[in-house]
């Protein structure tokens, strides 16, 4: 096959195009859900048409031309990099190369369609992006389509942009051209070429083999499916005469880079989150310890990795809650036992008594975005109670996050207006991108995100599409205004997340159970060629 203009032989043992390309060193082609074929991170062009590499057999591309993001012409690649930098369309950079490749294919076919929102949304239906909220990607496409892409990297202080990104995530993150191209140092890309690969088998044990394809074969793992089991909140509401009630379900962090870490004998393991913190979802990941132990045990370099199914079964979830509140701010919030959540609730809603409950189910974490205190402020808002962190008017919701900035959100179902006070913005492009991403996550949480967990605590929704993440076509337009402010920079995207969740829940009529219902087709297979 011809890869980026070079004739190559598929590596022995590689059955999918994804395995072949990564074995050949083309690490911009990412594995976010293989072999589900649902996230789009491994998208390449085959004879100019976009294809998802993880479900494309190598035998089908023999004698054909394959193009990754590295194989785009230098001019086209630079155009897309600059456009993504100019709009803030890349955050962690994991899903970005596949999106760029697909949109570049659309550009080759008809540049005018890049300015057609419906055409771009249809192209993006084959992808998932947890970070950006889609709007900045759509804006980047329109910039390329207009032929007027600014030289973003040369006009901005990317060090300041990196500071803002790191502040919003609470974890190290870089901003720059390499990130757009998927070169942010992900563990699955930086492992030594001769590292063995370890995956989890059907019995929950680690199977070690020479490469990912062989390890999956040894472990006899099969792709997960979406369950017919209904997702439901696991906790009963506390008894009481409440002005407002709220129950939430198991919700996955839905980051696209699956947990990976590698280690060589006698050295420290690679970080499981190389660029960003997966919104807190990887803070408690066991993979670094696993990689270190397997390297010690086998006396060789080992890359330990979770599949998408492993992430859903084993990754930390947002703690489900069930609570009630009164207009005076008192009430009870029952929460699946999670260390640190009670303190987070007390910081914004001291009148709520937190009761932790032991429930069979996935692990939970207090580090996911605004875990606990978001739900507490939602209850207070619905009950008409006051809080120093919350102000609700007829047309907007204002939230101040602990030790952070303030966000005011107004929405009408077709658009969202966000105003933030975040101290020194450092870089408004990145700040705006994080605000739009927070709106996207909040709307998805209220509308559609949940996973089915049975009475034994076993997760059953094992496909990345079944997590309920909103598609580009489901996102309303978001307008972000950054207030002129002095003083040190403050994180604010968590406040945007909480204010948006309250506003959307209010717009839905404050129904007791979240999510309120999936929007049409949010969990359907993409209708574009994959």
Which features characterize this protein?
530 residues; alpha+beta; Ubiquitin-like (UB roll); 4 domains; 5-stranded mixed beta sheet; 16 helices; 20 strands; 16% strand
Structure notes:
With 530 residues, the protein is of the alpha+beta class. The chain folds into 4 domains: 2-70, Roll (Ubiquitin-like (UB roll)); 72-185, [2Fe-2S]-binding domain (DNA polymerase, domain 1, Orthogonal Bundle), CATH 1.10.150.120; 190-222 and 259-305, no CATH class; 317-507, Aldehyde Oxidoreductase, domain 4, CATH 3.30.365. It has 16 helices and 20 strands. It has helices at residues 17-23, 74-87, 96-109, 117-124, 135-146, 152-155, 158-169, 177-180, 187-190, 212-219, 287-298, 308-314, 341-348, 373-383, 428-447, 493-507; strands at 2-3, 6-7, 43-46, 49-52, 65-67, 196-200, 206-209, 244-247, 251-252, 260-263, 302-305, 317-318, 321-325, 331-336, 352-357, 390-392, 397-400, 406-411, 415-421, 477-482. The strands form 5 sheets. Strands 2-1-5-3-4 form a 5-stranded mixed β-sheet, with helices on one face. Helix 13 links the parallel strand 14 and strand 15 (352-357). Helix 7 (158-169) packs parallel to helix 15 (428-447) and helix 14 packs parallel to helix 16. The longest helix has 20 residues, at 428-447. It is globular. The two termini are 19 Å apart. The model is unreliable at 518-530 (pLDDT under 50).
């Amino acid at each position: 096959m011809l890869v980026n203009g070079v004739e190559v032989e598929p590596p022995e043992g590689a059955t999918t195009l994804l395995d072949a390309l990564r074995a050949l060193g083309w690490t911009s082609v990412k594995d976010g859900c293989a072999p589900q074929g649902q996230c789009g991170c491994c998208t390449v062009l085959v004879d100019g048409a976009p294809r998802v590499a993880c479900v494309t057999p190598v035998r089908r591309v023999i004698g054909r031309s394959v193009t990754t993001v590295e194989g785009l012409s230098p001019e086209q690649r630079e155009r897309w990099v600059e456009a993504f930098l100019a709009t803030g369309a890349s955050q962690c950079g994991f899903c970005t190369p596949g999106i760029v490749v697909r949109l570049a294919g659309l550009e080759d076919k008809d540049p005018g369609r890049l300015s057609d929102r419906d055409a771009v949304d249809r192209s993006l239906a084959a992808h998932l992006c947890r970070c950006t909220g889609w709007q900045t990607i759509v804006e980047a496409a329109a910039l390329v389509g207009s032929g007027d892409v600014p030289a973003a990297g040369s006009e901005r202080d990317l060090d300041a942009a990196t500071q803002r990104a790191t502040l919003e995530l609470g974890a190290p993150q870089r901003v720059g051209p390499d990130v757009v191209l998927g070169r942010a140092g992900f563990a699955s890309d930086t492992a030594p070429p001769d590292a063995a690969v370890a995956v989890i088998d059907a019995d929950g044990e680690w199977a070690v083999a020479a490469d990912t394809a062989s390890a999956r074969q040894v472990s006899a793992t099969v792709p997960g499916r979406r369950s017919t089991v209904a997702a439901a909140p696991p906790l009963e509401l506390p008894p009481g005469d409440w002005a407002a009630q709220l129950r939430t379900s198991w919700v996955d962090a839905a980051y696209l880079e699956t947990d990976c870490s590698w280690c060589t004998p006698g050295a420290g393991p690679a970080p499981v989150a190389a660029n960003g913190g997966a919104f807190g979802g990887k803070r408690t990941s066991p993979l670094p310890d696993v990689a270190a132990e397997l390297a010690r045990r086998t006396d060789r370099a080992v890359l330990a990795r979770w599949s998408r199914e492993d992430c859903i079964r084993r990754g930390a979830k947002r703690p489900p809650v069930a609570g009630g509140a009164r207009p005076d701010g008192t009430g009870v919030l029952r929460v699946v036992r999670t260390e640190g959540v009670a303190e987070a609730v007390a910081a914004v809603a001291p009148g709520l008594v937190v009761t932790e409950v032991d429930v069979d189910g996935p692990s939970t974490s207090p580090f996911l975005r605004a875990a606990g205190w978001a739900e507490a402020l939602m209850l207070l808002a619905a009950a008409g109670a006051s809080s120093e962190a919350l102000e609700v008017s007829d047309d907007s919701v204002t939230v101040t996050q602990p030790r952070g900035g303030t966000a005011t959100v107004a929405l009408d179902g077709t658009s969202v207006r966000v105003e933030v006070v975040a101290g020194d913005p450092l870089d408004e492009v990145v700040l705006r991108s994080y605000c739009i991403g927070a709106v996207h996550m909040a709307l998805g949480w209220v509308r559609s995100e949940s996973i089915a967990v049975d009475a034994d605590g076993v997760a059953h929704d094992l496909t990345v599409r079944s997590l309920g993440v909103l598609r580009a076509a489901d996102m309303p337009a978001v307008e972000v205004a950054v207030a002129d402010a002095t003083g040190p920079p403050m994180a604010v995207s968590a406040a945007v997340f909480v204010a948006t969740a309250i506003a959307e829940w209010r717009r839905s009529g404050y129904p007791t159970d979240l999510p309120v219902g999936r929007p049409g087709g949010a969990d359907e297979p993409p209708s574009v060629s994959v």
